[in-house]
Write a structure and sequence with these properties.
- The complex is a heterotrimer of chains A (about 425), B (about 110) and C (about 240).
- With about 425 residues, chain A is mostly helical.
- Chain A has one domain.
- Chain A contains 16 helices and six strands.
- The N and C termini of chain A lie far apart (about 85 Å).
- The mean pLDDT of chain B is about 85.
- Chain C has a two-stranded antiparallel sheet.
- The C terminus of chain C is likely disordered.
- The radius of gyration of chain C is 29 Å and the shape is extended.
- With about 240 residues, chain C is an all-alpha fold.
- In chain C, about 65% of the residues lie in helices and about 0% in strands.
- In chain C, helix 2 packs antiparallel against helix 3 and helix 8 runs antiparallel to helix 9.
- The chains are: A mainly alpha (about 425), B mainly alpha (about 110), C mainly alpha (about 240).
- Chains in contact: A-C, B-C.
- At the A-C interface, helix 3, helix 6 and helix 7 of A face helix 1, helix 2 and helix 3 of C.
- Chain C: It is a multi-pass membrane protein.
- Chain C: Keywords: Cell membrane, Membrane, NAD, Quinone, Transmembrane, Transmembrane helix.
- Chain C: It catalyses: a quinone + NADH + 5 H(+)(in) = a quinol + NAD(+) + 4 H(+)(out).
Chain lengths: ~425, ~110, ~240
């Protein structure tokens, strides 16, 4: 059982052992080679999952939209990603004559690099983590903001007005949605008392000696807002305004072809998968789970989250620019701040550790009771804010309908006159 | 030679920060574009931050004074960039120019 | 792990970072292509984040990436895009040489202050200074030992992030500056929105009308005072026509 549970760790230790025996004369060199190899393995994992995800996404979206999806290359179209890869490699690599060449050529690299560096701090199983950074959560959000730079580089470097429009939209969207993302990571960080992803998972595994509760139970509001902001951050449908094909043809990557385009695609999918992993880690308990080995649990949770992404993509129409900004600045940010304050006060009021209760006062409760209290509070905020928004939307809809009705009446009068 | 951190003496950081500060100063004195001027200011603030954090780490890592001041510098740099760029864009809209030498009137 | 190897690797990393920082900074201040200058500024910020990593302050390395690269650089690039008409102008003004010399002199002074170099200054031998200070004795300048010699660098506490956080809300430490900074950010948020806001056409028309009225009143007052106005009085209907725009 241990062999299966710690499979990744055992393999890793085995490879590290081999490397250590080869480079025994210089431990530093051995460390360097081990780290390099680990980095290559992580990147390979991300790239391979990108290939798999494109296939799965096309199949799932096709099923949702009552189509078949790829079915020609190999059994069930399983070889489609490889066919796509060959097509991408052999396509002509064009560069616009007026492009800013350096910027244009660097942009795909930058986006891929920023997307892949996120994986350095993700814990895949106990002891299997690139580096247990003590500012892990902060690091992931910072690296996520790096892809904005790449998209702007692509948009400006292409010297194309659609690309520039895409870049403008990108700035507004990605910078904006970073705010609710950070605001909703904060409750998790506050209850854990640490920015390290490993500590966050440990907290969800055991809560003061009791079996842990995933943080989605503590903060359903934060989980929901984090998920939606994550979709917006990675520019996936229904927030794919930065590359909306039907409005600005393909946004920032309209001029790219061949492998450069593939790198953009890779960056997008790898980012989305990273958001799925981070969501599973922050709110679903990461690799923690009974019976199955930990890495399988993490993959399962990430797969479920990614399936939600695909589901949304298959069913929802693209939002308008103003709707996107209204959702962020008029709903997510203010309500997140209210939620943060309420949760903070409740966590000070109902404490689980006796030492803290003695030091700062407050009511001593069991972790389960604290979870229940926070769950109710978070859910009440969510339902209350949704009710307000629904009411407001209804009023706006009625106004719009009245205007349309009036215009229709005017038109009829004009025609009859 | 005991006073090294990761094999690096303190003065390396100080010299880099001094050089960065002077590069920023040159930009502030010599550039003709208000945005480039602002970039120079950012470089100077960053140089100050390197100094603050290097001194903090080498001399008094037990207290958090250096971190606090570096954080304040960070926030002020962000605020300055926001207001400065808003002003520049606004001025550009009115005068179609952001050459600081041409902006010599009290009234636009 | 022998010590000498570790040292060389960290030192090599430092040198690479420092060269990246300084090289890209020089590019930033010399190029005429503002967009590329902004991109190189990002490289500068990244190198500085690397320096913070070498200082073992991961928190500020990440904050550097998040705030400088994720926010300030983006803002600067945005401003460059919005002022596209200013692309390709001469990057330097007429005082560039003087500025370079000034920066160079300040750098030399800072080098003496920060670096380990000692220079003997003999003022009495300098051409002009000798007139005023002919009998000054030569003295050594520079080479200050900033770290106490032969003492290990104090270890950084493991919980430095939590300590830092507490010090910001501790009434005995940095609570007041923290509140002031928070207030500053509030004001800046409102101010930046107010300045950069696209003004509605009605407001612009209102402004023009007021300006025209003021000018007319001024001219009227001057005429009544018996002076010739230096601007021609506005023709009748000018106010109305601007209002119609």
């Amino acid at each position: 059982m241990d062999l299966i549970n710690d499979l990744l760790k055992i393999i890793g230790d085995f490879i590290a052992g081999i490397i250590n025996s080869i480079f025994g004369f210089s431990p530093f060199l051995a460390d360097l080679v081990t780290m390099g190899l680990a980095a290559v393995m992580l990147c390979t994992f991300a790239a391979l999952s990108f290939m798999g995800l494109t296939y799965v996404e096309r199949k799932v979206v096709a099923r949702i939209q009552d189509r078949v999806g790829p079915n020609q290359a190999g059994p069930f179209g399983l070889l489609q990603p490889i066919a796509d890869g060959i097509k991408m490699f052999t396509k002509e690599d064009t560069t616009p004559a007026t492009a800013d060449r350096w910027v244009y050529n660097l942009a795909p690299l930058v986006i891929a690099v920023f997307a892949l560096t996120t994986y350095a701090v993700l814990p895949f199983a106990p002891g299997v983590v690139g580096t247990n950074l003590n500012v892990g959560v902060f690091y992931i959000i910072a690296m996520g903001s790096g892809s904005i730079v790449a998209i702007i580089m692509a948009g400006w470097g292409s010297n194309n007005k659609y690309a520039l429009l895409g870049a403008f939209r990108t700035v507004a969207q990605l910078v904006g949605y970073e705010v609710p993302m950070l605001l909703n990571v904060l409750p998790v960080v506050m209850i854990t008392g640490s920015l390290s992803l490993v500590d966050i998972i440990n907290q969800q595994t055991t809560l003061n000696g009791n079996p842990g509760i995933p943080f989605i139970v503590f903060f359903p509001f934060s989980a929901l807002v984090f998920l939606i902001s994550g979709i917006a951050e990675t520019g996936r449908s229904p927030f794919d305004l930065l590359e909306a094909e039907s409005e600005i043809v393909a946004g920032f990557h309209v001029e790219y072809s061949g492998m450069k385009f593939a790198l953009f695609f890779l960056g997008e999918y790898v980012n989305a998968l990273a958001v799925a992993f981070v969501f599973s880690t922050l709110f679903l308990g990461g690799y923690a789970g009974p019976v199955l080995p930990p890495y399988i649990w993490l993959m399962l949770k990430a797969a479920v989250v990614f399936f939600i992404f695909m589901w949304l993509r298959g069913t929802l129409p693209r939002v308008r620019v103003d709707q996107m900004h209204n959702l962020n600045w008029k709903f997510f940010v203010p309500v997140s701040i209210v939620h943060l304050v309420v949760v903070m006060a409740l966590m000070k009021l109902f404490v689980t550790s006796p030492a803290l209760a003695q030091a700062n006062g407050g009511v001593l409760v069991t972790p389960g009771a604290q979870a229940a209290i926070l769950f109710v509070a978070s859910l009440l905020i969510l339902i209350g804010s949704l009710a307000v928004v629904a009411r407001r939307a209804r009023i706006l809809r009625l106004q719009e309908a009245a205007v349309l009705e009036q215009r229709r009446a005017e038109n009829i009068a004009a025609v009859s006159a | 030679m005991q006073n090294l951190l990761n094999g690096i003496p303190l003065w390396w950081y100080l010299v880099v920060s001094a050089a960065l500060f002077c590069i920023g100063l040159y930009a502030v004195l010599a550039r003709k574009n208000a945005i480039a001027l602002l970039m120079g200011v950012e470089l100077m603030l960053n140089a100050a931050n390197i100094n603050l954090l290097a001194f903090w780490r080498y001399l008094t890592p037990a207290s958090s004074g250096g971190l606090a001041f570096a954080a304040f510098v960070l926030v002020i740099a962000a605020a300055e960039a926001a207001v400065g760029l808003a002003l520049i864009v606004s001025v550009y809209r009115i005068t179609r120019s952001i050459d600081p030498e041409k902006l010599d009137q009290m009234k636009l | 792990m022998t010590n000498s190897e570790i040292m060389t690797i960290h030192q090599a990393l430092f040198i690479v970072m420092a060269l990246a920082v300084l090289g890209s900074a020089i590019f930033v201040v010399t190029t005429s292509n503002l967009f590329r200058a902004a991109l190189m500024l990002i490289l500068t910020f990244f190198g500085i984040a690397g320096l913070f990593v070498l200082l073992d302050i991961g928190l500020f390395a990440v904050a550097q990436v998040l705030i400088y690269i994720g926010a300030i650089s983006i803002l600067i690039i945005f401003a460059v895009m919005l002022t596209r008409g200013m692309q390709g102008m001469v990057p330097r003004n007429s005082q560039a040489v003087a500025a370079a010399v000034t920066a160079g002199i300040i750098f030399a002074v800072l080098l003496l202050l920060f670096g380990p170099f000692r220079v003997t200054v003999d003022v009495a031998r300098w051409p002009v200074f000798s007139l005023f200070a002919g009998n000054a004795s030569p003295r050594d300048v520079g080479g200050i030992a900033w770290t106490p010699p032969n003492q290990p660098i104090p270890a950084m506490p493991e919980t430095y992030i939590a300590d830092f956080g507490r010090s910001l809300v501790d009434g005995n430490q940095y609570l007041l500056p923290f509140l002031l900074i928070a207030f500053l950010v509030d004001v800046v948020l409102a101010g930046a929105i107010f300045i950069a806001r696209q003004r509605r056409p009605a407001e612009i028309i209102e402004d023009r009308r007021r300006q025209a009225e003021e000018a007319a009143e001024e001219a009227e007052a001057m005429r009544q005072a018996g002076m010739t106005p230096d601007v021609a009085p506005l023709p009748e209907g000018a106010v109305a026509s601007t209002a119609e725009h």
